[in-house]
Design brief:
The structure holds two protein chains of two kinds. Chain A is 0% helix and 58% strand. Chain A is mainly beta. Helix content of chain B is 0%, strand content 43%. Chain B is built from no helices and eleven strands. The chains are: A mainly beta, B mainly beta.
Chain lengths: 110, 116
């Protein structure tokens, strides 16, 4: 059974810092890995999707990497801003189903 | 950008009531999903559908039922709500690619259900 773990569970940084969120999964037989953002009381917004054959994806200040063999992914956020404050979820796509981690709650203070 | 809608956004009801949570999407996506998320916990898949007249149970056992009569509509029903059903319910959709599940899932805003 696939299990997804995210570390740290919560992170508080001052504005402008670069930061890394970690995601690990137990079963390397995945089709893709997605990073989502969830704001309080709202749904999920897809940030980046990395196919199993890819090593990384970039979108603006976000960069996600995938090491399928070791079961790890990182989300790098450059020059963090208060608007980045949210919960970040990692999810892996196995056969037909996404399995989510519990998320990292990020707070960026001005 | 995918458009996927859920109503109501918030619902507080008494035990024993029958409720239906609505989910609709305008992207023509074949595949739709329902997830349940308790506060501070991960999302769990409770139902999914490959297309019209297709429904499957997810990883987490749920007393809810779903139907898929139209491509754009995937409602979730609880025949008799209980306090244990209090949770957030998130609907999602994606294109169904025969080559494999490599597509992005787009999520609705969620319904926060409280059963008293």
């Amino acid at each position: 059974k696939q299990e997804v773990t995210q570390i740290p569970a919560a992170l508080s940084v001052p504005e402008g810092e670069n930061l890394v969120l970690n995601c690990s999964f137990t079963d390397s037989a995945i089709y893709n890995l997605q990073w989502f953002r969830q704001d309080p009381g709202k749904g999920l917004t897809s940030l980046l999707l990395i196919q199993s054959s890819q090593r990384e994806q970039t979108s603006g200040r976000l960069n996600a990497s995938l090491d399928k063999s070791s079961g790890r992914s990182t989300l790098y956020i450059a020059a963090s801003q208060p608007g980045d404050s949210a919960t970040y979820l990692c999810a892996v796509m196995g056969f037909q189903k996404l399995v989510f981690g519990t998320g990292t709650r990020l707070l960026v203070s001005p | 950008e995918a458009d996927i809608y859920q109503t109501p956004r918030y619902l507080v009801i008494g035990t024993g009531k029958k409720i239906t949570l609505e989910c609709s999407q305008t992207m023509g996506h074949d595949k739709m999903y329902w997830y349940q998320q308790d506060p501070g916990m991960e999302l769990h898949l409770i139902h999914y559908s490959y297309g019209v007249n297709s429904t499957e149970k997810g990883d987490l056992s749920s007393e809810s039922t779903v139907s898929r009569i139209r491509t754009e509509h995937f409602p979730l029903t609880l025949e008799s709500a209980r306090p244990s059903h209090t949770s957030q319910y998130l609907c999602a959709s994606s294109e169904y690619l025969l080559a494999g599940p490599t597509d992005t899932q787009y999520f609705g805003p969620g319904t926060r259900l409280t059963v008293l």
